[in-house]
């Protein structure tokens, strides 16, 4: 005799209400506490769907939280990095600083060359072949510089009360251009030009060398005493002789030739 077919619960006319949040995912088959569901029982499909949906939402929340946390870290990291000093590679090169040159100062004044006082003993002018001894001269009764003795054509005189050749100031050396008998020691003095050199041997054994600055001719009645005889700030020499036309009635030349020179 065949077994009767199994009976099933009547099929509901309406779908059952969804389980509440407190319903077990295994609705209708919840095990008692401490009892696991039997292996033959499977959770309904709708419960599995809800469980999967819940897990997907939870995973999404985890990803979102991680993203927000990472963004917060990144933001805080940016702030934190901004607190650190920049590295050498990050520092822009400093703009070149303008260097203020030191103030210009005038170089100290060069001391003019000079020699101590000493009588001259001999005059040497290589260009015009002069090699002559000295004799001291003074101022005559008319207030003019004396002339060297006319009987010696190879003799020069110097104003002994003034500066000696090489000493600071103006030293005056005079000589004849000629005499009644012949040419004299300064017959060729007019040949000296700027840059020519001559020498004076002195009693102290030193030799003073001079370079010509200029050679000029002055009328005797307009002779520039201040320019020729005045003291100077360096050691200078004036070589003086007669020049121009000889005045037979006055028995003298009408002009003087003056050579200006300084110690070198």
TrEMBL record:
<keyword id="KW-0378">Hydrolase</keyword>
<feature type="compositionally biased region" description="Pro residues">
    <location>
        <begin position="93"/>
        <end position="106"/>
    </location>
</feature>
<feature type="region of interest" description="Disordered">
    <location>
        <begin position="1"/>
        <end position="47"/>
    </location>
</feature>
<feature type="compositionally biased region" description="Pro residues">
    <location>
        <begin position="1"/>
        <end position="19"/>
    </location>
</feature>
<protein>
    <submittedName>
        <fullName>Class F sortase</fullName>
    </submittedName>
</protein>
<dbReference type="Pfam" id="PF04203">
    <property type="entry name" value="Sortase"/>
</dbReference>
<feature type="region of interest" description="Disordered">
    <location>
        <begin position="73"/>
        <end position="123"/>
    </location>
</feature>
<dbReference type="InterPro" id="IPR042001">
    <property type="entry name" value="Sortase_F"/>
</dbReference>
<dbReference type="InterPro" id="IPR023365">
    <property type="entry name" value="Sortase_dom-sf"/>
</dbReference>
<dbReference type="InterPro" id="IPR005754">
    <property type="entry name" value="Sortase"/>
</dbReference>
